[in-house]
């Protein structure tokens, strides 16, 4: 007698407007972006995306990308101490028709809120994150769907950064979420991966950030071989790294067989990057970088893998058979 196969479980994204089936996400995602932000340590107002001043331009860009390229999802990684604004994310999602996944956690040490990190243990920090996952960001009811961007700088995280990474891993394991890291200028990804996995977080639930800023193909292969996702997420930031170098590094990773470990994005983190201010905008990935990949021989299935299926698998822990 033939047996009926068990149906695969429905995979749901936790978006700012509620649960969303991965089946509903038919277009590409931006895997590491900011729609609101305040990292203005210098006092010059450059590293700011203000909901009131810049929100209309940001929403206009997202709506235009939805219409032109089918943009379906943004993973928004503005976390505690980074000027987050959950209400602005809800408005962006509702007005543009682009789903938004919000985040919780702590950025790297210069941006750690003292009231959070000063005397808290790993267990206490994990409790803070679990409470936000369950109850919403800052009591708003807007629930995060990812931990990130959890930061460190240098090859080895500082003691507070190590605590925040370990706490993020514990919260992710407790609530079946994934973790995106901030590896300053690409450095420290191996140490981040080690800390997170030691807390029981599976490598496939970890994305090591900003690896396109580090011209070390052997390290990229090592991280991918261990099962982590590799973020080429500062596409278009030519002052940090040329897209020509990014393209070469990415092609090397694809040629090594790790297309299923890649996530792509632009990491818009200053208002000067917005198209309304003459910047490359959130759409640089679609308008410039992906056409360069196609010209280099990358086919549409691999483009879809990197821009849609990989982000969905990363967020949900789904297998290739499911998505």
Please give the structural blueprint.
Elements (H helix, E strand, L loop, with lengths): L11 E4 L2 E4 L7 E5 L3 E2 L9 E2 L1 H19 L3 E4 L9 H11 L2 E3 L1 E2 L9 H4 L4 H14 L10 E7 L6 H17 L3 E5 L5 H10 L7 E3 L8 H9 L3 E4 L10 H13 L6 E3 L19 H12 L4 H17 L7
Parallel strand pairs: 3-6, 6-7, 8-9, 9-10, 10-11, 11-12, 12-13
Antiparallel strand pairs: 1-2, 4-5
Helix pairs in contact: 1-2, 4-5, 5-6
Keywords, please?
alpha/beta; TIM Barrel; globular; disordered N terminus
Structural class: alpha/beta
Strand content: 5-15%
Whole-number mean pLDDT: 96
Beginning-to-end CA distance, first to last residue: 29 Å
| CATH fold field value | TIM Barrel
CATH superfamily: Metal-dependent hydrolases
- At the first level of CATH, the class is Alpha Beta
Question: Order of strands across the widest beta sheet?
Answer: 8-9-10-11-12-13
Architecture (CATH level 2) name: Alpha-Beta Barrel
> Helicity, in percent?
25-40%
Description:
By secondary structure, the protein is α/β, with parallel strands linked by helices. The protein has one domain: Alpha-Beta Barrel (TIM Barrel), CATH 3.20.20. The radius of gyration is 18 Å and the shape is globular.
């Amino acid at each position: 007698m033939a047996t009926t196969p068990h149906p695969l479980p429905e995979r749901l994204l936790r978006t700012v407007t509620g649960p969303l089936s991965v089946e509903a996400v038919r277009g590409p995602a931006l895997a590491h972006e900011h729609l609101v932000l305040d990292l203005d340590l210098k006092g010059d107002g450059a590293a700011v995306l203000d909901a009131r001043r810049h929100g209309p331009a940001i929403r206009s860009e997202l709506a235009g990308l939805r219409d032109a390229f089918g943009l379906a999802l943004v993973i928004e990684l503005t976390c505690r101490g980074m000027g987050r604004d959950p209400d602005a994310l809800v408005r962006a999602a509702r007005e543009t028709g682009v789903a938004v996944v919000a985040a919780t956690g702590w950025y790297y040490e210069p941006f750690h809120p003292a009231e959070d990190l000063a005397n808290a243990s790993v267990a206490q920090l994990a409790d803070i994150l679990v409470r936000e996952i369950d109850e919403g960001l800052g009591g708003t009811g807007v629930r995060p769907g990812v931990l990130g961007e959890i930061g460190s700088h240098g090859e080895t995280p500082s003691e507070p950064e190590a605590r925040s990474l370990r706490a993020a891993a514990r919260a992710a394991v407790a609530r079946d979420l994934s973790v995106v890291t901030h590896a300053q200028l690409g450095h420290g990804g191996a140490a981040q991966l080690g800390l997170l996995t030691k807390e029981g977080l599976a490598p496939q639930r970890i994305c090591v950030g900003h690896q396109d800023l580090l011209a070390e193909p052997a390290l990229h292969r090592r991280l991918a071989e261990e099962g982590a996702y590799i973020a080429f997420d500062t596409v278009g930031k030519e002052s940090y790294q040329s897209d020509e170098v990014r393209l070469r590094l990415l092609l090397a990773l694809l040629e090594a067989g790790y297309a299923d470990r890649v996530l792509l994005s632009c990491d818009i983190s200053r208002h000067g990057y917005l198209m309304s201010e003459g910047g490359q905008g959130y759409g640089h990935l679609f308008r410039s970088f992906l056409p360069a990949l196609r010209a280099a021989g990358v086919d549409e299935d691999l483009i879809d893998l990197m821009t849609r299926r990989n982000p969905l698998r990363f967020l949900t822990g789904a297998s290739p058979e499911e998505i």
